[in-house]
Amino acid sequence: MINNINKKYNLSPVNGEALLNFKGRLSADELYMQVYDVDAKKSELVNNPIGNNIDGYVFDGDCLSVCAYLKDHNMQVDLVYIDPPFASAANYSKKIKLRKEKEKGKNIQNPKNADYSIGEEIMYGDIWNKEDYLNWIYLRLLAIREVMSDNASIYVHLDHNINHYVRVLMDEVFGEECFRSSIVWDTASPTYAAGHKWTANNWIYSQANIFYYTKNSNDFIFNKEIQHIKMTSGDISDKPVKDVWTDIDNFAGMYGCKDYKTGYATQKPEALLERIIKASSNEGMIVADFFGGSGVTAKVAYKLNRKFITCDVGTNAIQTIRDQLKKEKASFKVIDIKDGIDLFRNPTQTMNQLFKLCNGEKRNNDSEYSQLWDGVIPFNNNLTYVKLIDNSKILDEKYLDYLITEIAQDYILDEQKEYVLLYIFKENSLNQEMVNSKLRQLELSFKINLISVENILKERKDKVQTPDSVYFTINKIDSCYEICIKNYFSPYLKRKIDDENNRRVNKNNIIELSENGFELIEYISFDTTMKDEWISDVEEIVEKNTQMKGKYYLETDIFRMKIRNIAGDEIIVSSEEANNES
Description:
Number of helices: 11
CATH topology of the largest domain: Rossmann fold
Helix content: 10-25%
Structural class: alpha/beta
Largest sheet: 11 strands, mixed
Strand order of the largest sheet: 13-9-10-8-5-14-15-4-16-3-25
CATH architecture of the largest domain: 3-Layer(aba) Sandwich
Radius of gyration: 26 Å
Number of domains: 3
Strand content: 25-35%
Distance between the termini: 41 Å
CATH superfamily of the largest domain: Vaccinia Virus protein VP39
């Protein structure tokens, strides 16, 4: 993990006037994007192309750091579609199900619906302080604009929670003259209003807004779509598509679409992305989605003969995107940018676990202290307020000055003598002595301790989740080698199974873990190239209601094996670790 900034790019001036003011608002001239190292050991080349002509890139990293990478490699995009968090005050999860074939008679009353669910995993958090969200999205809009080509367009998908604020920020970033349209997508499925919404004590909200802007006001691509509409008179007429889209069903309400569902909570229908990509790009152009989610944008772009760039901060999202594009036979690189902590599957889980590792308490709605703090941790024999500078921000001198001002105001109310700033990334020049000097100059009587998250993790390494384990053998059969998985075990998933069994009222429906543990595995891959970049020679993606084979055949006994469990955790073992029986 890297805690210091090696290279950064200042962002270009905004095109419009700053009309939206809020507490802690950052100005464009204070903002920048930084370049991080790439973790070569986590890179992968999928569907190895002939030559170097790949179809796209999948980045495991934040939008901001991916834009910095593109800038550093002189890469531009021609169309951007983003479906960012909406500040919806909710956490989005996916259900975890064992990969197990349905057993006859397992559930006597309904054998086809035996329940192999063992709980949920948070995929991403969307609970924000409004000011933090606006600064967060503002910075990323500036970064995205930095890597858009001169005739590029951007579509931003939002809902009623935050769209009115973001529209004003987009006017500032791109300029009001570059606003093209506010598309209203009627997201209501045919059965939406027939369900529980009938009992709602308000109007039924069933639409999303998609703001459409261009990089320049005059030079942009737009291919008008024409639809055949049957008129009441019996004619058939050609009509251009209006900016109110009522003909694309919300994915959640579509029937007969189980083959397209990925399990990602906010997945969008392919028809929505197809319309946008066809309208604002031509074949061969580069389409980018910096909040990749389920991978629909990249998948549709590939199917429409465009190149794609996509990214996400969640491990589960990257795995979903990777597997979807693999099925489509796209050739692409997976690049892991070292812009955060790879301790858990996404930033939300990482932040929650950090407080547990510190034996602290994460802030909640019932906390008595101010919202400035993320929680409390034991420090110098006291419970101390802590501000966690996560991987969405950089701790530099300007941000430090802002925090000192905020802490000084909070100190008047609470009179704490000591505080902790827990950071992931900071500028090289920033250190504890600089913090102390600033406090002395301002004649402030409290202390701020500057502590690296990396140091916290090193001190508490023994509390980090125990990794999964696999027992396998290698046997030579004629001219090839048989790799036989004998046993797989995940301490984390075993705890989830135990918790789920304790919750179940019907004790006849208890989940029993098999001796080989195959139902815990959703993906297995073998790489015989042994290069830094992973290239899968043989792999198996285990679909729901099926189970892994357990036996695989290679032409060599020198390989690396990657196993992913149903929660998204991965382990990599080498052929040298085989447990061959004498």
